[in-house]
Amino acid sequence: MSVQLATARSPGFRLSALALAIAVSTPLAAQAQQPEVVDVIGQAAQLEQALDDQRRANTIKSVVHADAIGQLPDDNAAEALQRVPGLSVERDQGEGRFVRVRGLGSDLNSVTINGTLVPAPEDDRRAVAMDVLPSELVQSLSVVKTLTPDMDANSLGGTIEVESLSAFDHDGLFYSLSAEGSHDENTSKNSPKLSGAFSNRFSIGDGVDNFGVAAALSWQERKFGSDNVETGGAWDFDDGARLEEIEQRRYDITRERTGLGLNLDYRPDEHSEVWFRSLYSRYKDDEVRQGLVTTFGDPQLPGELGEAEVARELKAREETQEVKSFVFGGKRQLGDWGVSAQAGYSKAGEDSPGGIGTAAFEADDDFSNVGYSGTRKPRLRAGQDLYDATHFSLTEVEWEKQKTTDTEKNIKLDLTRDFSLSGMPSQLAFGGKLSRREKDNDLDIWVFEDFDELGFSDAQLNLSQFSRGTTDYGLGRFGPRISDRAVKDLISGLNRADFYDEEESRINDFTIEEDINAVYIMNTLDIDDLRIIAGLRYEDTSIKARGTGLDQGDFVANNTSNDYDHWLPGLHAIYQLNDQTQIRAAWTNSVVRPTFGQMFPGFVLDGDEAEFGNPDLKPLESSNFDLGIEHYMGRAGAVSAFVFYKDIDNFIYTADVAGTGAYAGFSEAITSINGDSATVYGLELAYSQKFSWLPSPWNGLLLNANTTFTKSDADIEQFDPDLGAMRSRSIRLPGQSDVTGNLTVGWENDKLSLRLSTNYKSNYLDEVGDVLDARYDYKVDDQLFVDFSAGYFLRDNLQVFFEAQNLTDESYYVYTGKRRYNAQYEEYGPSYKIGLTLTHF
């Protein structure tokens, strides 16, 4: 929460109406002679509101704002955020999902909705998938990059703040209704979407327009797919970069999104406010994945032919993610004292009620004369027999059922006291927060195999009985398509209890409780043109993890706890050079707990091999330094430059600890461990401007550009059995791109709006494959996405719009070591949408 002083500011720091008018005027004198009519809709309005929020904030932050008709510039929250400086997006099936800030992985950032933390639906992550939030439910998105002591200290890159619609965002009755249809070029499927938002104010008691109601609804069913070829990094670099395995995949997905929001505001007088915020989002995937797995008898070079084992696989599962958030709060100003209190409840979950994890059809014999061409996008070379369904038989079906819940409850209290210090306006703020979080995972797995012993004939198990046509695959030849319904029918008559996999099911069940108690104190002081915010936050963390391990074939309960606390000082300074320009500096400290997958309490000890989570991990601790300048100019105009530096202790990575400590006698022991230190530093540049002073039609031109240059360095180490000693090497932090950038060129008038936008991020380390050998690291190739959108007002309140996404048909490419060696290649194709929006505001 950013503190805004209630007392009058000193003359040098006051943002008077005159100063604000100057700040938003164009730098050309010509505009003073031709005053601009400021629109409240469109690209410029969104930028103008975002820059105004950014300018007034006590923190360094970037903002994306909806305009007066409730439109964000993109389809979901993740894709809207990728337009701001320092941010990049992890995409899933071509759609923006997780957000990275300043090159730091999405698990190192936090997300709040209406002031309360949002938990993560996935069993192993802290990162919140932002695509579960339809843009219609969001009024603004902020990325706070420098935390003040009154904020949770749980982010290294930034805290993403989501604010939903309030009735006090509009003067009176507001509504917006949209209907659209989209077309996916990869699957040639069409998909519908409906959404609406409403708000109005009502008079209660003696007040006038003092009670507000706002509601929003969004529903979408999207059908799409992708084509994939991957090696999983199965290259033998010790023998001339020979390939061991290729897997071709075809994904067909139906994704249904439903979003609901209801917000109530009551302002009985100018000194008091009570609010209720609620948001519900449901995200359901029905996914069918066809797979063709080819394993060479001996690793092969491109163009070579040899024997190969081939299997055809099916995955078919339904998965539903839900996010619920409820916030109740109020504030009151009592003279120089202010009090604010809030209670929040959020619950996220992922439910897979039961589906085919894998259905494997293996070939009766190995195939000969099998090879491949190309190493970046390997294409299988084989004879006709490999594509004949009669050569494959069902050998195994793995059925999975999983439910994950992540619940976060919190209460917080903030008190402020305005006073004068030697004639200078000052405000003391102090308060506390109690947070209780619980992550629970329940996985059940059944493995159906040895079908011949169950009385099934060879004919019943032959793939020809399960295939339904051929698989539509754009990266080469694939062959028969497996019917998930036929597989389900086969196993439906079997006694499921006879096939329960107790080991995999019990080891993956866990409960992790995380309790955080926090208090803070800070003071804000205005000294003429300088604002100083200094404070201290204390956070005490208690973690309890309960799970099950398998120790040489025996199940054992594993209950652990880990307690730690942190003192986190912070100092912010804002200096007004003039009415348009200000300098910002900040020294902050933050702490990020390990992910739930890293703290996983389950383990397996099998002979001299082990794999386990590490509930005793230390949290990441970071000291952060930021310095920058902002200059505001004209309509939607600003230019800024910021440098940042982060000194991180205890960063976490996966390593083999065999040969050390308690695992000295093991040949393999895979777990997560703490590294010593890492550094991240960089430069953010941003520029935006509407060129309203140019002659028509150029006065509708708008430009928004930003780029971020980031570097990071971390040392990892592992015991090398050949040397009999520890060996280390330096890496980039996973997820960190050296360059990210956005460029948007727009044009608009009172009828027509056009926008061409590009989003770029350079390559980054995705995962350390082998601590001792950089050749097996997984890196994601650079990506450049180009999108186009247009809107035209048929009437004052009726707009038709068109959008085209991924016009360059950008792919997702992961490589192993060097860029020419595939780990995963996936392409999606462009998509298009057209729709209508009816508004009243």
From TrEMBL:
The keyword Signal applies. CDD domains: ligand_gated_channel. PROSITE patterns: TONB_DEPENDENT_REC_3. Its main location: membrane. InterPro entries: Beta-barrel_TonB, Beta-barrel_TonB_sf, Plug_dom, Plug_dom_sf, TonB-dep_rcpt-like, TonB_rcpt_bac. It comes from the Bacteria. Residues 1-32 form the signal peptide. It holds the Pfam family TonB_dep_Rec_b-barrel. Residues 364-807 form the TonB-dependent receptor-like beta-barrel domain. The keyword Transport applies. Residues 55-159 form the TonB-dependent receptor plug domain. NCBIfam families: TonB-Xanth-Caul. Belongs to the TonB-dependent receptor family. This is TonB-dependent receptor. It comes from Halopseudomonas bauzanensis.
